[in-house]
Structure formats: C-alpha cells, structure tokens
Amino acid sequence: MTGATAAAAAPQRGADDPAPLLRVEDVSVRFGGVVALDGLSFDVPRGSICGLIGPNGAGKTTMFNVVSRVYEASSGRVLLDGVDLLRLPPHRIASVGVARTFQNIALFPTMTVLDNITVGAHSRGSGGWVRAAFRLGNRRNDSAARSDAMALLERLGLAHLALRPVAGLPFGTMKRIELARAMAARPKLLLLDEPANGLTHSEVDELAAVIRGLRDDFSLSVLLVEHHMKMVMGISDRVTVLNFGRRIADGTPSQVQRDPAVIEAYLGGDSHADEPGGGHRG
C-alpha cells in the first residue's frame, strides 16, 4: 500500500462488516490562516485499538480535541454510533460514551485516589463533576460511583492506594489513576493522549497489557495517540498516520510500517522510537 493510495482511498469495510464505532468524515479545522486538519477521514472499528500517529504538528491532538468538543471543526462530521458528535454540546460528549486522558496529568492532588476516580463517574449522572468532587450528590449515586471506582482500582492493582492523596505518588501510578478515572465514565470510546509519555520501559510494557485488558474486559474501542512506536505497533489493530493535517496512510501496523510515505514523513527519522516516550514530541 503506497502513501498516495492510502491517502486517496477512504477506509474500506467489507459488505458484511459492522459499521465502525467512530467514523471521522472529511474533518477540517482552521485557526485563522492555519489549517490544522485538512479533510481528514478514518474509522475506528468496534472493539479495536487504533493508533493515530504522525510528526509534530500533524494534527493528532487537534483531532482528539475535535472529538471531545474542545475545538470546533470548520467542516465535516464525527459519528459515534451514527450520532454526529459535532452537533452535541461539549457537556454531552461524556454521556454518549466518550472519555479521554490528557498528555499532562490533570488529577486533584489533595484528594484521595478513590475520590479522583469517583469524579470520573460524573458524566453518568446529572450532578456534574464539581458536585462529584465535593461529594454533594445523591448518597445512593455516590455510593454506587465509589463502589465502581473501587472495582477499577482493584482491576488496575491500585486498591491499596485508595485512601492515599494523589500528591506524592509516582508518575507511573498517577498515569494509571487517570486511566481509571476515564474508565469510571463507562465509555464506549476511550481516547488516550500519549499515555506512555514519561514512563520507563517496564511501565510502558505494563501499560500496553493494561490497555489490551481493558479493551477486552469492557468491550471498548480505543483511539491512541502515542510517540512510543514499539507500543503503538504492538497493540494497535489499525494505525492511521497524519502529516500536516492530512491522512497519508491507514492500515495494519505491518502495512503502515512498510509505507514509503510514512517512512519518509515519520518513521524513517525516528531513531528513538523504542525509548520511553521516544519519537517526535507534540
């Protein structure tokens, strides 16, 4: 598969294949005269882990911000189970099944691990995250949310830290806590924005296993932005490659790694792709 061919053709499915969970159709984003995304289209099949990679400024995090309604698209559609997310107000995105993590950890440092994860369940109720954070909601709902949060901590091997404040915990542990908080929203689609950034080799390997396990146990679809190429290629079912806001390749990891356009634009210059957080930044 050549880069030109991949860029020209829309993602293909067989006649009997189920519709993808997420379908991005011809999305463009402009900031003044700067084109951040230029007619981008790709699919995230149900139950899959899909990598979204590319050099600095390729538009990966911009795409995440469009899906989560942080940014407004100039044109196009983003369909989740047939519902156009771009027609929904930002506060509705979590409630229809989208959760994400961020490049920079955004936990409440003085709150306990358990309370941080309980906040992630706010999208399932009507109280909002502020009420959840200060435990001002309905007692029954709060009890159910804390029970679910504790189950997630146990699933991720963090139950022993439930009552510890987040402040002072190791960086890799905080990454897992943020992942648990996203999972507390019971998403259909989990957006992971550079989850391996700053982790050691062993932590990256453990994280890869955790992501696979969560996908399998919770019937998730995962869209992953990550510069650690060994991890991306090791756990992704499909990989979409961006450059200057456009898709230059889309396929299985083995197809993408052989694509001349990808090698020229990204992989060929990535001599540190196997290092923790290695590769191009941004």
From TrEMBL:
Keywords: ATP-binding, Nucleotide-binding, Transport. GO terms for molecular function: ATP binding; ATP hydrolysis activity. InterPro entries: AAA+_ATPase, ABC_AA/LPS_Transport, ABC_transporter-like_ATP-bd, BCA_ABC_TP_C, P-loop_NTPase. The keyword Magnesium does not apply. Residues 22-269 form the ABC transporter domain. GO terms for cellular component: plasma membrane. Pfam families: ABC_tran, BCA_ABC_TP_C. This is Amino acid/amide ABC transporter ATP-binding protein 1, HAAT family. It comes from Geodermatophilus ruber.
